[in-house]
Amino acid sequence: MSIIGNISSDNTELLNKFGIDYSSSVNLTDQEVFNKYVECDMLVFPSTYEGFGLPIIEAQTVGRPVITSNTTSMPCVAGGAACLVDPYSIESIRYGILRVINEDSYRNELVAAGFENVKRFDPDVVANSYYELFLKVAGAK
User: Fold this and answer.
1) What are residue 68's DSSP bridge partners?
2) pLDDT band at 141 (very low <50, low <70, confident <90, very high)
3) Domains observed in the chain
């Protein structure tokens, strides 16, 4: 397991207690982060709070299936292209991981849907959306 970001001492103790093989990386360059996504099999991102959830889009951009929370902004960002789990339930997270590992068709559907989802965040698409909004607001006056 590769973890990007700092790991608390409590979490380090748990990882070691359960014999989980992991690496942790911090202060990565953009290219190094990109390489981590390319090297991974899936993104497991059961966050309990995110303002946006950029790792979802980053993983989908390189064709990785995403497992993320069914709370806050994650379902919206994932756009129906992620396995949504309860971030407070170990069983839910485990089920999501195993489903992505064991169900080839489901995993392939997530990857294909992810490629479609990232198109919503293309800079030209976003800029055009703002342009259309500004036209509507200006026309309303």
Assistant:
1) 45, 84
2) low
3) 1-39 (no CATH), 41-139 (3.40.50.2000)
